[in-house]
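User: two proteins, same treatment. go.

Assistant:
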Amino acid sequence: MTSFLRVDFCCGTFRQARERLCSPRVEWLFPDVRRKHGFIANYWLIAFIFLGFWLPWVVDASLLDRFALRSLALPGLVTHPFFHVHSLHLLWNLLLLACFGGIACNELGNLRHAILFLVFSVVSGATHAMFDGDRAVGASGAVCGFAGLVLTLRMEGAVSFPDDSVRVRVQSLAKLLVLKDVLLWLLPDLHISLAGHCGGYAAGVIVGCLMCASPFLRGSKAS
């Protein structure tokens, strides 16, 4: 009797969790925005970055050092955003990527999103290599690029906490992210690539301005 009750309880808990995850009210898992192109490319990107975090632990610890950003040379200039030092580093970047990357993916489409991630990663990595030079990994530079793009193009959307108690506009969240980096300049020895972040913001703003000037780049028709 106890075993049957346990199985029934587990099945019921699983069903409740599945219904909760499939509910349209779970806005904290997805950017709350009018669907246009969807978020497929951003989902795949998040999955690849998550898998990349585990590769040095499961396959070979030297992978982290081999694919880290060290200079303007390959492969580190391209591969560094797919690796992270620790779980909090990974979680922070994935949450922000789900927000800003998701908004950009939905607005611009999967192909443009993938190209922009590569562009933002390379530009932020090159900026870090030129002005800092220490070994670096992480997708924060690309995340800052998407944040700068969202601000420049005034993309709308919102994110919510799990219980829907707090709802934050994406524009406000991007401004808070920029403010956070400005404040971090005042704190020494944090081992955060602020130069790379600035390179990402700059790349996002420049791409946004180009898209404002040319609707073709944004994937929209000129009016």
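Protein 2:
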Amino acid sequence: MPSYSKPQIREAVIDIHVSGNKRLTLQTIAGIQANIPEDFSIAETETEMEFKVENDQPTLPTEVLALYRMADASRQKIISLSNTSFTNSVLRHYPGWEKYLQETKHLWDIYCTTMQPQVITRIGVRYINELNLPSDDGKVIPHKFLNLKMGLPDSLPNSDKINVAIQQFRIPQPDIMGELILHLGKPVPNSNFFLVDIDIVRRNLNIEVDSEELWSVLQRFRERKNQVFESLITDEMRALLK
């Protein structure tokens, strides 16, 4: 698989959902903060209102922590933690898969030590590519750079003047027991950017949190992501990324 020195990745995401863990509290947050690398200098919390019923009567709503988010000073690396999920995101300055995976393993260990989840229920890998397509005499020709069959009939008025268009495809991937979710199109009016959003997920899992299966699944998802991306681009696009 080709390696690109100039990838146009807007965001890379590893997302792991869990169950059976502790609740997100100020105490668990303190345990996470004590072990997180120092470059994650920004911390934010989100709360939600929790309602309970006791003796068939609703109690007063209680404000509880729903999400704890940490980022570096440039907000290029973001960790999002909740009662049921761990998400590690890298924006723009993608360091490469091996380094990204090693950082994820370290942060995942910190999350598991503090939150003590019991099982993994969902695994996802997502790469949002924002490809800058060169124009030819002021006009972008997507099929020159992308292997896509997209468009509208010529009989539709102004079909050649589309400002924004996003198509979604959901494709089963039985060999890796997952689902591929593709978003393709032009997300910004009057721009040369083309979105290639590749999301691969596996749901309804029951994997032990310390199992090596987690990392083997992520590796297979990454390989499938690469296969999908390569199938969507032409040699002209590859030349721009090298």
